[in-house]
Amino acid sequence: MKPVASSSDAAAPAENRAANFLRGIIERDLAAGTYAGRPFGGSPGDAAHHARGAADPARIRTRFPPEPNGYLHVGHAKSICLNFGLARDYGGVCHLRFDDTNPEREEQEYVDAIEEAVKWLGFDWNVDGPAGSVSHLYFASDYFDFMYRAAEALVGAGLAYVDEQGADQMRANRGDFNTPGTPSPFRSRTPELNLARLREMRDGRHADGAMVLRAKIDLASPNINLRDPTLYRIRRATHHNTGDRWCIYPMYTYAHPIEDALERITHSICTLEFEDQRPFYDWLLENLADLGLLARPLPRQYEFGRLNLTYVVTSKRKLRQLVEDKVVDGWDDPRMPTLFGMRRRGFTPQSIRAMADGTGASKTNIWLEYAVLEAHLRADLEGQAPRAMAVLDPLPLTLTNWVEVFGSAAHVEPCQAPAHPQRPELGTRQFGLGAQVWIERDDFAQTPPKGFFRLFPGNKVRLKYGMVVECTGCETDAAGHVTGVQARVVPGTKSGTPGADAVKVKGTITWVGRHDAVPAELRLYDRLFALAQPDAGERDFREALNPKSLVAARGWLEPGLASALPEQRFQFERHGYFITDRVLHRAGAPVFNRITTLKDSWGG
Ligand code: ATP
Ligand code: MG
After folding, report:
1. Do 420 and 368 sit in the same domain of this protein?
2. How many domains does the chain have?
């Protein structure tokens, strides 16, 4: 079966797709009808907990399961694009599920931020069906009742027991790669006694950490994850969703397969580090199905290689450290690889999706060059960002013969330029050339180096979209710094007039008129880390920080930018792509972030 074509904005052309072994698996399952006519899982009492939209059981279902304990980053974006993308391409559904089984670390703030980030990336868990729009937003904590009942069923079947050994004893008795585990003295208790104990745990009759519920599997298994893993622990903590209702909480490894099964996920896609958990995933679901608590066919877990980006760290713990140590200005600092940071920096959702699609899915962890992500970004911005002139490091230029040529010092020559060189439908920009303009400091040299074609005494250049000027000299301060430049305008050379080509020049420079320029705060961002693998080896990853990741500047913009709204992107000619800051930008007090330079200056 071929991927279903989609008209969605988030669709990637099939021919651009990188190798992705998951497509093969899904196509095989669809062709074999593995999930066709799949019955509604669980007992009737659990109906409220089951996946909505059950009317269409042949669909494949994937899920993106973040833990709401931090902000999503570019690595999560890979997983989102993969899971939502596969569901989209094969006419399936992708669930957004909060894996909120850990009460201490989770917060509503993160839940809200995660939802916003997934939407911004261009994906939607609301799916239109015959009966209207169906929401596929789920919380693991909604299944706590079912999970507890499943635990009682496992205990009743002799497949789980309450272990009262201390944590240290448990660890010591687990053995290691060479030594099988030693059975706990509690392992052989009867199901009746275990059940009574489990209920006491649930009812708050025991202290935190006094005992745990463990699966009874195989203490000699070479896979440590099968040596009677913990299923439930006692933890008196207030949960963001269930409050103080529970004092026992399921372990992630126990909860996750159940969440997948209740939601009738077909392909449970996760990163490679979960490979060793797959035997437990299958053990648990097979047993719960045998006990009549879940319906077959059961979800299957597939692992793919994690995406790592050079010059970026994607560990939530390390990102949190940068925020807490105030190395960056919050989770949404434009240098952060969080989706909020990348959005504020000016990344487009399209460029992130293109990067994700371009990396496919494989069985090994991959390192992607940051330059590849930036190339996707530039490719996207090139076609859409309107052009503008901006002077980032201003130097005043005075046209000394202005009155002679135009009769008045206040005269302004109207100039225009296309908003985008390839897109005439975007119209033209208007601005004026007057006797005083701002030019870029490094466009002038008192003594030009070889091959310098811009302004120096005696040389002629074109003020882009304006006129040709001939430099006559400059002023310096006591320290020898240039404080101003003089030139004479060459009459009859205005761009777009018949005389424009009469005088040949080798250089064209950007400028803005002092009479109409808009002052702006410019934040020249660069990579947060100066080393390709910031967290490699023994070094503290903070030693790899790039000291020049933010250079603050004040510059001048062409007048049309006075009306820019927050989150508008531009290409400042010769300088790079910029975006108005979505938090700080105001009309009258513009703040622009540099998204990226026009070319990669890092050399890969
Ligand atoms: P932790 O669990 O240590 O807090 P995490 O990055 O695994 O961090 P989760 O919220 O559990 O955070 O991640 C949600 C999903 O995103 C998981 O399925 C995880 O495998 C996936 N994911 C996270 N980082 C990457 C990455 N770099 N590449 C691909 N997928 C990733
Ligand atoms: Mg995780």
Report:
1. no
2. 3
303 is catalytic: no
**Would residue 479 count as lying in a domain?**
yes
Portion of the chain with pLDDT greater than 70, in percent: 93
Q: Give tens-digit pLDDT for 304-353.
A: 999 999 999 999 999 999 999 999 999 999 999 999 999 999 999 999 99
The closest-lying atom of ligand 1 relative to the alpha carbon of residue 78 is 29
Last residue of a domain, one of 469, 498, 516: 516
**Residue 90 included in any domain:** no
Q: Are residues 503 and 405 located together in one domain of the fold?
A: yes
Contact predicate 591/523, CB 8 Å: yes
CA distance 34 to 261: 15
Ligand 2 centroid–CA 292 distance in Å is 29
Task: Please give the DSSP secondary-structure letter assigned to residue 416.
Answer: E
Residue-number span of the structural domain to which 235 is assigned: 144-251
Ligand 2 centroid, distance to 298 Cα (angstroms): 22
pTM of the predicted protein model: 0.92
The string of DSSP codes covering 144-209 is HHHHHHHHHHHHHTTSEEEE-S-HHHHHHHT--SSS-----TTTT--HHHHHHHHHHHHTT-S-TT
In a domain, 259, yes or no: no
Instruction: State the Cα–Cα distance between residues 576 and 581, nearest whole angstrom.
Output: 15
Residue 245: CATH number of its domain: 3.90.800.10
DSSP per-residue letters across 99-135: ----TTT--HHHHHHHHHHHHHHT--SEEEETTEEEE
Residue of the nearest CA to atom 27 in ligand 1? Answer: 75
Q: Which of 76, 281, 315 to mutate to test the pocket of ligand 1 (most atoms within 8 A of CB)?
A: 76
